[in-house]
Structures are given as structure tokens and as C-alpha cells.
TrEMBL record:
This is Phospholipid-transporting ATPase. It comes from Ceratopteris richardii. Residues 1-22, 930-939 have a biased composition (Low complexity). It holds the Pfam family Cation_ATPase. Residues 1077-1319 form the P-type ATPase C-terminal domain. Coiled coil: none annotated.
């Protein structure tokens, strides 16, 4: 039998397809049906009109779906309506054309009209594709503010171009780059991600390195040492330490940037096909200009942001993969207007080569990757453009042979580049504090040198009359020793002291730290507990200068898709007509069950099979096969029909190629043979729903813009798609209007329960079953909905209704008016949707589990117990984000959700203010406003209450266990920097959920403080529908306002800006490309490894390096102070009693190795204890191992030890005949032994390597001193054999013993008292470890 349908395709009269074209391969022919409108032809594509032998009637079991397919006469109303619609559209287009032309003449004026994106389907005015609403005038200057961070300094216009400033909107002449860039020279397509150029490398790198204050100090000392009168050390020898450190660091930075240059060069020299001289010719990416027409082949990457003009698909559809932008691996659908495709065909049919013409008027470049607004002007007609008409740079063309588009944004003005924050220079927090302490040490050093200078002047004045006879002055010998007077000698004494005491600032510390970090990184890489077997990925340490920051993280900002989840959905439960159907286990288990024959026949008897196998419920299979049970079978049919049809997924056919590889192509119903169907779409949960419908026999096998084909239990059935209302955050549902083969018009709806249950009608007529069933179905469905939610499943409510002829016409008028409007389109579409999304028959509920990565809930729970706040920043929908929040234990049922969705700035301000007034407590625990203010906030905030979470009270058997439990649960009492984040005024724990539209305004300067106060008062923050640069903006806000350590973790290119902005960036080596890994500081296989990375390695790295820094300050200071005390008794001369070689070797051989070994090997707690008690991690957040009081306490201890070091030998030998070189030998040994015993006292985990390093360094010191005392050169002869002379006396050994005991006694007493009366959490945990062993 034959059938006809409503007109599907509209095109200009001249748009007759050409048999051959440089823009296409072979195209299907179309036949035109004449209409009364001379300018319009109604085209039928032969592959859309199917013969009777292809589409058979449904089986007798579905007679309700059968019937005569409507004829042309039956669709007269639709045809007349479509003609009216077409006329209306052309009238509207003429108006728009006039407006835009007028706007061109007044380009400097800013439009104030509130525009919405209009996206008329290129294939059918009955199937208008919805779009994102653009706030404010998208073609005026405010459009560039769409996703600003709040600072106002965003990239727009032609900032990177070399010509004039961009006007208020961008005018692109198609295939005419010369005219496009005639007045406003736009940015070229060359990109640059490197930090340095050949000329800027040396100055810029040195500027970055000299952020270390110690480097500036040593540069000053190096310059002073070049003065002959001050040359304490050799001129060239003094250059070596600083130059060596600068060179090694520059070499490392240069290599990293060389890799960026190499990547940029490779990217810029990739080849694209540009339309030149009537044909497509290869052209390098960097040479592509705005206005050029480009052709992209399948599996190629888009070179710049292009507006689609035509694709290989006859309906203008192109499938792209956007994982480099938003991290999603699912295919997205993009469209070319049929009118532009027809125009290109018409131009190509001319005898001469194509002269593609027209222009695109669009908004200026901005960072909003989810929005685009513009118009294409073709043959005098205005064609609105939206986000589904543009393909962004970095996307890949998939399942589409080719696509043609015009370049509108290139190079640095593309959206992906505008969302790239660039490589950041990161320095650890400990290193920044080192700079502060280095400054204090420098001031103390200057004081010592100033005392030496003043002391020299005073001494010279006191002995002014004796200078002629004092050696080394000898004024009567014609100034043989170059005496410069009291002032001159004082200045030289000051400068000489500055050079002699230079080791007060330990430049060797920086080299030691780099070495320790390198070995720590090796241990982290080799940790088998962070090895991912499935992907063969180990931890990667890509930045070696922030290892210790891992131990001080306070905020973790995490992406969702691919980071917390595997982005794999699994259908778990279905509630249909009040009956609960749950999966019956794996398919093999079902086949092995008593229902084996039933399931086997049902699942294996279809021509079309989903590639993903879904678990089948035998009871639901029986319902489908029971033709007599109409009461249950009809709701099940409508339920599965809704799952299969109410979506935006595209079916693709999977086949095995001749080479043995799986190949995909868009599926069509005419394909023969058994095929595997794989569904591609933007939403993974939609893919799961379509797959489960296919598994039960409702297989979506073809989708175009105006019809779908379902294989229903083996029979192919075609449904006309009259319109689609896609999901939005206001309606919280999606609906599709279908014309069934029997002529009935069905509205299929699915959405969130909060919205859908209000749309359900309980009348018997609307529910299509008897009055006696309505209460049971509704109550059972609600019970199942609550049960699924408690299981953490993602739930959707499914409903449907039928439209009569009057309702259909009324809805079509509303729908057409909305799609044809420019201003207020979203509002009109909402009204049209509300008209049909009412009085629904309740069909049931779906329950889907979003597959989390292994160990994610445990990891997040551990991080929360460690006092770390986890914020989830995702581009996904709000409902999805909340559902994942519950699944991964980020949200709990005891939390009060504060949801902020605002579309304008004032509304955003009011909602944030109301939330603060209602819930936020100040530091004194009082509500910030009166109770009346809090009550007023209820209307502004969407709050969700859940039952209280039960907490198991730990049993406390001893004081030790009491402390340990406090460690484990202490994170609940941690306060933020400015606001208590514990409870609201009602005693609830708060969770803030805010969307990207609200963040556009909340991140502005005047609102960011309010947002920060509210967000930090909440235990959990979830930001949904955020753009990449918004993620970076949130991280930047927390960094600036709180000064706490931040960590960002993600797996896609959309996370790069966030990763680079955070103090620590972690990339997941997942399925979403390697952009995040390449931009990260650390990379790992899965999110669960973050727990061990922070709680174990972060904790140990921080404690080790913190102690190492303090110990190095102590080690060098105690030696310098020893030299300083000596100058007080030698007329403030800088000539020391210790040999020059010992001065040099003290920091290189005598004491350097033990501190490096301890910094690598020592640990205070085992990994098992650190993971068992996550609260121990808070010691790093609270800076217990390195803080200002601890630094000054260490310096006070250093002062005491230096006094003991100097005065014990001084008073011992003051009246003896022992010379200064012998005492100097004693001081050298004593200080080395003392600092090593000091280190040994603080070691908490001894290994044989640590023993060897500590005690071996003392032995090495003795060997060096013996060797030095045996030298017979002129400079060494004065202390020849001194060690043998003094070491032969008992006084020598008693002095060393007395120095060690007396110097370390105060430190020992303080440690004992602290452990006894005020132990830290880590001390108690260590006590537990000792008792267990």
C-alpha cells in the first residue's frame, strides 16, 4: 500500500539538486510538488517515501496502532498551515533583513533588544530545532559578557587582529575574505600556547626565577665579591652556585616550552580544504582567514569556528564529537540550513564555477561555547543561526562524509582558545613562605653585618692611637695594608661580613629541595596502589615544584563526566502502570532461568539489535507477548514508545569492515540484514533509555528532522515528527509530538518528577484506564519513585496524551509563532509546550544508574573526613549533577539544598542575599538578619529537605581511642576562613547548587564577595551548566578570597583552564583525550587514586619538606651565629678560626646528605594509618609543620645552640695555650655533630639509609678535617696537624659531649612536655602505631 504525509522540505524554487558538484558527492534526486507559491517548492526526497512492501502494518496484536495511513486529503489542514507558516516566515525574514541592514549602517550603535536564538529547521518547518536562549542582545556588546569571569577583562572583538577595532557585530562575507577583512582585519588562524619566544626567553625566565628572594640576595653578594677589597672568595668561584642553579632551571623551563612550540607548529601547519578559484585546495590552518569556505572530511578536526552551509546528509545533518570542548565523548548533532545548501547547489549548477555569495552577521567573539547568535543572509532572505548551526574549533566530524562551512572566528578568537587560560607559573605555598622567612633572615643578617661594621668603627676609634703598631694597619709603613679610615673600614667590615655570612641564606636548600622532590616523585610514580591495570597508567608527576602542596589542599574542584563517572548508564528499574519491573540479573542468568526459552526467543529474534546489551525482566517480556492482557499491554507499549521516541539520539549501524575493524554509519530503515545499532547522542541517559527500549523490541532505527522509524517487535513503523520541545531547566521535561500510522496524534513526555507529577491528570479519561485503577497506579508509582531515589538512581517520570484536531491546530499555531519569532522566542516556546504538556496519562518511572568509577564514594567520603571541601563543576544538567552528587556521597539526605537559578543580575543578587540572610551564620553563631528576613527568603530559594542522616556513635574505650576518633571525625567542626560552615539557622548542613547562568552575574566584581560567603558557608557546592572559563573563575575566586590551597581535577579539554588556574592541577588519563593530562601537574588513571595521593603522599611530602626547610635555616644559622660570636672577640674582623675549606664544605659535604636523605625517607605515620584516619590530613591544612611561630621558636633554639657552641670551648680554653686553629677545628666538629644529633632526635622512622647518612656524615667530616690538616700549602700550613694535637686531650671529647647535651636539652624538654600534655593528632596516631608494634 502507499501513503503520503505532510510536506516535509522547503527550498527556494531554484534549488534543484545538481548531479555533480565540488561540494558534494552523488546526491539523491528529489521530486518537486508544485504549490501556489511560486517562490516555494515542496520537495519529497525518495528515500523518505516508502512503498507498501517495505512498511508493513503492525501485527494483529497491535491493532490499536493500525489503520489507514492518512492520505493527502486528510492532511489538507497541515498543508494549508504549512503554507501559511512559510509565508509568515518569509515576511518575518524580510523584516529581519531590513533590521540587520539598518544595523550594518549604524554599526557603532548598541542594540538593546532582548533577542533569542531562532533556529528554523533547514529540512522542515514542522521540526524546528530548539536552541539555547541567549541573554541580552546577542549581537551587541553585552553579548561578549555572556561568560565573563566577573573582572570585565575578557577577550572579544579583534584584540588579536592587526587592523581596526571590531564593530558591534561581526559581518562575514561568505567566500570573500578580502571584503570581510577590508575594514576590520580579524585575527588570523595561528594559535600560540607557548610562554616564551626566542627573544623573551632569557629576560622572562630570569624574571620568574628571581621571584625567589634568596636568588636576589646571592646576586647581590656575587656582585660585592667582585670588588677586590671584598673578595672573600674567588671571583669566578663565587659565580658557580647561582649560575648553576639558574642554568639548570632555565634548561628545564626551556625544554617544556620547546615542547609547546613544537605542538603549536604542528597544529598551525595542519592542512585544511579551502574553496579557492572554484575548487577546494589544501591550505595550512594558520593561513585560513575569516570568510573563507572550508570543507571538512569525516574524522577530521575542525580548523576554526565555522557556520555550516551544507553537509553530505540530504537533511543537512552533521555529527561532531566535542570532547575537546566539553569533555563529552557522545556525538552531537549540528545542522546546515536547507536554504544555504540549496543555494550552494544552485550556484554550482551554473556553467561557470561556483561563486558562493551571501553573508553572516553574528555576535563578536566570546567564551560561551554553548551559545551562538547570528543571521545568514542568502538571496535576500534572513536565516537565523544558533548554537546548532556552528561547529567549533577542535571538534571532530564523525559519521558524516563531509561538511562545508564558512569561517567566522579564527585563531585566538575561537571559543576554545578564548577559554584557554594559558600556562601558569606555579610556585608552592611552602616556597612562598620560604621567601617570607628568607626576607626575615636577610634582615637579621643585615643587623649582624651592621653590628660588625659599627663595631669595627668603634674599635678603631678606641684604638686610634695604637694603629701604627697594630699589625695589618701600620699607618707608618705608607699605608701598606690600605687603611681607609674609620668610616671606610666600617663600610668594608659591613660588606665583608655580608659576604662571609652569606650561608645564612641557604641557596643549597633550593637544590636540595629539587632533588628531594625528584625522588619523592619517583616514589609516587612507583606506588603500585595508584597503578591502573585496565589502562596501564601510572601516576605521572609533570610538575616537580609543588609536591608539598598536595598535603595542604583545602578545596577540590572536580569535573563530573569522565572524572567521577565512567559516563556509562545502566538501566536498573522500571515502574509501568503501577507495577515494578527490575532487572533480572545478567542476560546469561536470565537465559539460564526457567524463563530461558521466553527470554532467548524475545532477545534473539529481532533484525535490529542494540550494541549495548541490557538486562531483561522476564515478567515484562511476558506482558509484551500476552496479546490478551490489553490493560497492562497498552501502557507498556506507550511507555516503551516514549523511551524510544522522546529523545534526540541518532542511531548508527555498526558493521565489521573487511579489515576486521568496527565501522559506524548512520542507520536507515532500508538497510537489509541483521545489524547492530549503536546510539549516539548528547545525553548518556537518553542513550540508556533508547537502548532498553530496543532490548524490549522497540528499536529506533532511523531519525531525520521530520520522521522516525521504529522497529516494533519486528515490524518497521514510521512516525511523523510534528514538533519537539527539548528539555529546559524551567519545564524540567521534554516532549515530542508524533503522528502515528493510524492518524492519532500523540504527545510523549518524560521529565523530572517535580515537574511531571504536576502535569498528570487523575481523571479516568485522561489516564486511559478505569476509575478503579487510577489511585492504585498513582500511589504505586510514587512509592516506586521514592524507592528508586533512595537507591541513588536517576529517575524520570513518563507520560503521554493524545491531541484532537482542534488542539493540534492550536498548538501548531503557537509552535509556528514561537519558531518564527526572534524576540522572546523562549517564552513563546514555553507557552506552546505548556499547552500540550498537561492532563497527561501517567505511564511510569525509569530508574537509571550512572556508573561511577570504582571507589569514588569512598574517595569523596575520605576527602570530606580529611577536612577537604569537594566542589563539583560540570557542564551537565542540574538534575543530573544532583543525582550524581547523591550517588558519589557528595550530597547526603540530611543536607538542605540551596538552589540558585537566575537569568538576570538583579534576580541573582536577590537570591544570593536571601540565601545568606536565611542560612548563613556569622562567626559569633548569629543569623545575619532578623527572622523576618529569613522568612522572606523562602520565595527566592528552592530548598529541598531530606530525612536526617543516621550517624553511628563510636565506642570510646580509652583516652587514646578517644583522640583517634576525634581525628577521624574532626572535619565536621572545621570552620572556613570567614563564615562558619556547620549549620544553618534550622540546624541543617547546607549544599549550594548554582547554574551557569547565575554564575555569569555572580562572578562579577560586585557580587563575587556575596557568592564566596555563601559558598564557603556550605559543606558542598555543585555548579552545573558551567563553561570552561567559568570553572577557572570559580577556582580563581576561592584562591583570591580564602588563600587556601586549591586542587582541580578533570579529564577533558574543558577542564584545562580550571586545572591551570588551581594551585594543583590533576588530569585523568581517561577516554576524553589528553588535553587535561598535558595541562596538569599530576596525572592519574582514576579519581579514586586522589585519596592516596593526598592523604598519604601529600601528607608525607609536606611534613618532610617543611621540616627540611626549617632544618636548613637552623643548620646554616647556627653556623653563621658561631662565626658572628667569634667576631666580637677579634676586633670585628671577618677572618674566621675555621678554615676556608671547611666553610665551603659545611653545606656541601658535612651536613647536606643527611637532610636530603631524611627529606626523602622519613615518615611519621604509615600509609595504613593515614588512610584509616583521614582527619590526620588536616595537620597540613593547619600548617602544623611549618608556620611563623614554629619558625621563630626554631630560631630561638638556634640562638641558644650557637651560644653553647661558642662559649663552651671559649671558657674551656680561654686561659690555655691552645691556638685559634685548634679551637676552630673543635668548633667545626662540634657544630657538625650537634646538627646531626639534632636531626637524629627529630627522625621518626629510622631506616639503615638514614643511619648511614647521619652517622656517616660525622665520619666524613672527621676524614675531611684530617685530610685538610695534612695539607702543606701556604694557606693550609697554619693549621697543620691541629686535629691530632687537640683530639689527643680529654677536654676535647668532654667539650663535644657537653655541647650536645647542653644545646639539645631545652629542645628535648619542650618535645617531652608537648607530647605529654598537648599532643597533636599525629602524635596520638603515632603512639597507637608504636603500641601495636
Amino acid at each position: 500500500m502507499s501513503f503520503s504525509r505532510s510536506p516535509l522540505l522547503l527550498s527556494p524554487a531554484s534549488s534543484v539538486p545538481s548531479p555533480r558538484s565540488p561540494f558534494s558527492e552523488k546526491e539523491p534526486e528529489s521530486r518537486a510538488v508544485a504549490t501556489s507559491n511560486e517562490d516555494i517548492r515542496i520537495l519529497f526526497s525518495p528515500d523518505l517515501v516508502t512503498s507498501s512492501d517495505y512498511f508493513r502494518s503492525p501485527s494483529n496484536e497491535f491493532q490499536s496502532l493500525s489503520g489507514a495511513i492518512p492520505s493527502v486529503e486528510q492532511n489538507t489542514t497541515s498543508q494549508l498551515f504549512l503554507d501559511t507558516h512559510a509565508s509568515y516566515t518569509h515576511s518575518e525574514a524580510h523584516t529581519l533583513s531590513t533590521q540587520v541592514s539598518q544595523g550594518e549602517r549604524n554599526s557603532k550603535k548598541v542594540s538593546s533588544t532582548d533577542l533569542s536564538v531562532v533556529q528554523l529547521s533547514s529540512a522542515s518547518l514542522n521540526a524546528v530545532r530548539p536552541s539555547l536562549r541567549v541573554k541580552s542582545s546577542a549581537i551587541d556588546q553585552s553579548g561578549s559578557h555572556e561568560l565573563a569571569l566577573g573582572s570585565g577583562d575578557f577577550l572579544s572583538g579583534s584584540r588579536y587582529g592587526s587592523g581596526h577595532k571590531d564593530p558591534q557585530n561581526r559581518i562575514v562575507y561568505i567566500n570573500n575574505p578580502g571584503k570581510t577583512n577590508e575594514r576590520y582585519e580579524y585575527s588570523g588562524n595561528m594559535v600560540q600556547t607557548s610562554k616564551y619566544t626566542f627573544y623573551s626567553f632569557v629576560p622572562k625566565n630570569l624574571f620568574e626565577q628571581f621571584h625567589r628572594i634568596a636568588y636576589i640576595y646571592f646576586l647581590l653578594v656575587l656582585c660585592l665579591n667582585q670588588i677586590p677589597q671584598l673578595a672573600v672568595f674567588g671571583r669566578f668561584a663565587s659565580l658557580f652556585p647561582l649560575v648553576f642553579v639558574l642554568f639548570v632551571t632555565a634548561l628545564k623551563d626551556g625544554y617544556e616550552d620547546w615542547r609547546r612550540h613544537r605542538s603549536d607548529k604542528k597544529e598551525n601547519n595542519r592542512s585544511a580544504l579551502a574553496f579557492v578559484n572554484g575548487r577546494f585546495e589544501p591550505k595550512r590552518w594558520k593561513d585560513v582567514m575569516v570568510g573563507e569556505v572550508l570543507k571538512v572530511q569525516a574524522d577530521e578536526t575542525i580548523p576554526c569556528d565555522i557556520v555550516l552551509l551544507r553537509t553530505s546528509d540530504p537533511n543537512g545533518v552533521a555529527y561532531v564529537q566535542t570532547m575537546n570542548l566539553d569533555g563529552e565523548s557522545n556525538l552531537k548533532t549540528r545542522y546546515a540550513h536547507f536554504e544555504t545548501a540549496a543555494h550552494i547547489e544552485a550556484e554550482d549548477r551554473r556553467l561557470e564555477q561556483s561563486s558562493i555569495s551571501g553573508k553572516v552577521i553574528c555576535e563578536k567573539p566570546n567564551r560561551n561555547i554553548y551559545g551562538f547568535t547570528g543571521y545568514a543572509e542568502i538571496d535576500g532572505h534572513q536565516l537565523p543561526l544558533g548554537p546548532t548551526n556552528i561547529v567549533l574549533r577542535g571538534c571532530e566530524l564523525k559519521n558524516t562524509t563531509w561538511a562545508i562551512g564558512v569561517a567566522v572566528y579564527t585563531g585566538q578568537e575561537t571559543k576554545v582558545m578564548l577559554n584557554s587560560a594559558g600556562a601558569q607559573s606555579k610556585r608552592s605555598l611552602l616556597e612562598q613562605k620560604m621567601n617570607r622567612e628568607t626576607l626575615w633572615m636577610s634582615l637579621f643578617l643585615l643587623v649582624c653585618c651592621f653590628i660588625s661594621g659599627i663595631g669595627m668603627g668603634l674599635w678603631l676609634k678606641r684604638h686610634e692611637h695604637e694603629l701604627d703598631v697594630i699589625p695589618y694597619y701600620g699607618q707608618k709603613y705608607e699605608n701598606q695594608y690600605k687603611y681607609y679610615g674609620k668610616v671606610g673600614e666600617s663600610i668594608f667590615a659591613f660588606l665583608s661580613s655580608l659576604i662571609s655570612f652569606q650561608i645564612m641564606i641557604p641557596i643549597s636548600l633550593y637544590i636540595s629541595i629539587e632533588l628531594v622532590r625528584l625522588v619523592q616523585s619517583y616514589f609516587m610514580i612507583r606506588d603500585v596502589e595508584m597503578y591502573h591495570i585496565e589502562t596501564n597508567n601510572r601516576l605521572q608527576c609533570r610538575a616537580l615544584n609543588i609536591n608539598e602542596d598536595l598535603g595542604q589542599v583545602k578545596y577540590v574542584f572536580s569535573d563530573k563526566t569522565g572524572t567521577l563517572t565512567e559516563n556509562k548508564m545502566e538501566f536498573k528499574c522500571a515502574s509501568i502502570f503501577g507495577e515494578n519491573y527490575e532487572d533480572g540479573g545478567d542476560l546469561e542468568d536470565c537465559i539460564a532461568s526457567p524463563d530461558r526459552k521466553l527470554v532467548t526467543e524475545f532477545s534473539c529474534g529481532f533484525k535490529w539489535k542494540p550494541k549495548v546489551r541490557v538486562k531483561l525482566d522476564p515478567s515484562l517480556v511476558r506482558v509484551l507477548q500476552d496479546s490478551k492482557n490489553i490493560l497492562q499491554r497498552t501502557p507498556v507499549h506507550n511507555y516503551l514508545l516514549t523511551l524510544a521516541a522522546c529523545n534526540t539520539v541518532v542511531p548508527t549501524k555498526v558493521e565489521l569492515s573487511s579489515s576486521g575493524n568496527l565501522e559506524m554509519e548512520v542507520a536507515i530503515a532500508a538497510d537489509e540484514g541483521v545489524s547492530l545499532i549503536e546510539y549516539q547522542g548528547e545525553s548518556p541517559d537518553e542513550q540508556a533509555l533508547v537502548s532498553v527500549a530496543a532490548s524490549y523490541g522497540y528499536t529506533l532505527i532511523e531519525r531525520t528532522s521530520n520522521h522516525i522509524v521504529l522497529n516494533v517487535l519486528g515490524e518497521n513503523i514510521l512516525f511523523d515528527v510534528l514538533g519537539t520541545h527539548e528539555f529546559d531547566s524551567n519545564r524540567k521535561c521534554m516532549s515530542v509530538v508524533l503522528r502515528c500510522p493510524d492518524g492519532k496524534i500523540k504527545v510523549l513526555v518524560k521529565g523530572a518528577d517535580s515537574a511531571m507529577l504536576r502535569k498528570v491528570s487523575l481523571s479516568a479519561g485522561s489516564m486511559h484506564f478505569g476509575e478503579e485503577h487510577k489511585d492504585r497506579v498513582f500511589s504505586s508509582t510514587q512509592m516506586h519513585l521514592e524507592m528508586y531515589s533512595t537507591k541513588g538512581l536517576r529517575t524520570l517520570v513518563v507520560g503521554f496524551r493524545e491531541l484532537n484536531a482542534t488542539e493540534l491546530v492550536d498548538w501548531q499555531q503557537l509552535y509556528a509563532k514561537a519558531n518564527a519569532s526572534v524576540s522572546g522566542r523562549a517564552t513563546l516556546l514555553h507557552e506552546a509546550a505548556q499547552y500540550i504538556e498537561k492532563d497527561l496519562a501517567l505511564l511510569g518511572v525509569t530508574g537509571i544508574e550512572d556508573k561511577l568509577q570504582v571507589g569514588v564514594p569512598e574517595t569523596i567520603s575520605g576527602l570530606k573526613d580529611a577536612g577537604i571541601k569537594v566542589w563539583m563543576l560540570t557542564g551537565d544538567k542540574q538534575e543530573t549533577a544532583i543525582s550524581i552528587g547523591f550517588s558519589c556521597d557528595l550530597l547526603t539526605h540530611g543536607m538542605k539544598q540551596v538552589i540558585i537559578n537566575a537569568s538576570d543580575k538583579q534576580q541573582c543578587r536577590d537570591m544570593i542575599k536571601a540565601a545568606k540572610e536565611a542560612y548563613v551564620l556569622d562567626k559569633r553563631g548569629r543569623n545575619q538578619t532578623s527572622h523576618s528576613g529569613a522568612g522572606a527568603s523562602h520565595s527566592a530559594i528552592d530548598e529541598q529537605r531530606n530525612g536526617p542522616k543516621s550517624v553511628n556513635e563510636p565506642s570510646l574505650t580509652s583516652r587514646l581511642m578517644d583522640f583517634l576518633q576525634k581525628i577521624k571525625h574532626s572535619c565536621s567542626s572545621v570552620a572556613t576562613s570567614s563564615i562558619e560552615s556547620v549549620t544553618s539557622q534550622q540546624g541543617h548542613i547546607l549544599a549550594l547548587i548554582i547554574d551557569g547562568n547565575a554564575l555569569v552575574h555572580a562572578l562579577e566584581n560586585d557580587l563575587e564577595e556575596e557568592l564566596f560567603d555563601l559558598a564557603t558557608a556550605c559543606h558542598v557546592v555543585i555548579c552545573c551548566r558551567v563553561a570552561p572559563l567559568q570553572k577557572a573563575g570559580i577556582v580563581s575566586l576561592v584562591k583570591r578570597k580564602s588563600k587556601d590551597m586549591t586542587l582541580a581535577i578533570g579529564d577533558g579539554a574543558n577542564d584545562v583552564s580550571m586545572i591551570q588556574m588551581a594551585d594543583v592541577g590533576v588530569g585523568i588519563s581517561g577516554q576524553e583525550g589528553r588535553q587535561a593530562v598535558l595541562a596538569s601537574d599530576f596525572a592519574m588513571g582514576q579519581f579514586r587514586f586522589l585519596r592516596r595521593l593526598l592523604l598519604v603522599h601529600g601528607h608525607l611530602n609536606y611534613r618532610r619538606l617543611s621540616y627540611m626547610v626549617l632544618y636548613n635555616f637552623y643548620r646554616n644559622s647556627v653556623f653563621v651565629l658561631l662565626l658572628f660570636w667569634y667576631t666580637l672577640y677579634t676586633a670585628f674582623s671577618t677572618s674566621p678560626a675555621i678554615t676556608q675549606w671547611s666553610l665551603v664544605l659545611y653545606s656541601i659535604i658535612y651536613t647536606s646528605v643527611p637532610t636530603i636523605v631524611v627529606g626523602i625517607m622519613d615518615r611519621n605515620l604509615s600509609p595504613q594509618t593515614l588512610l584509616k584516619y583521614p582527619g590526620l590530613y588536616m595537620s597540613g591544612q593547619q600548617n602544623e609543620s611549618y608556620n611563623r611561630p614554629l619558625f621563630w621558636l626554631t630560631m630561638l633554639d638556634t640562638l641558644w645552640q650557637s651560644l653553647v657552641l661558642f662559649y663552651v670551648p671559649y671558657f674551656t680554653f680561654i686561659h690555655s695555650t691552645v691556638d685559634i686553629w685548634s679551637v676552630g677545628s673543635l668548633w667545626t666538629i662540634a657544630v657538625v655533630v650537634l646538627v646531626n644529633f639534632h636531626l637524629a632526635m627529630d627522625v621518626e622512622h629510622y631506616t639503615w639509609i638514614i643511619h648511614l647518612a647521619i652517622w656517616g656524615s660525622i665520619v666524613a667530616t672527621y676524614i675531611c678535617i684530617i685530610v685538610l690538616d695534612l695539607l702543606t700549602d701556604d694557606e693550609s700550613l697554619v693549621h697543620y696537624g691541629t686535629i691530632f694535637h687537640i683530639a689527643a686531650t680529654a677536654t676535647y671529647w668532654l667539650d663535644i659531649l657537653f655541647i650536645i647535651v647542653l644545646a639539645l636539652l631545652p629542645r628535648f624538654i619542650v618535645k617531652v612536655v608537648k607530647l605529654k600534655f598537648k599532643p597533636a593528632d599525629v602524635d596520638i596516631a603515632r603512639e597507637e602505631e608504636i603500641l601495636k608494634h
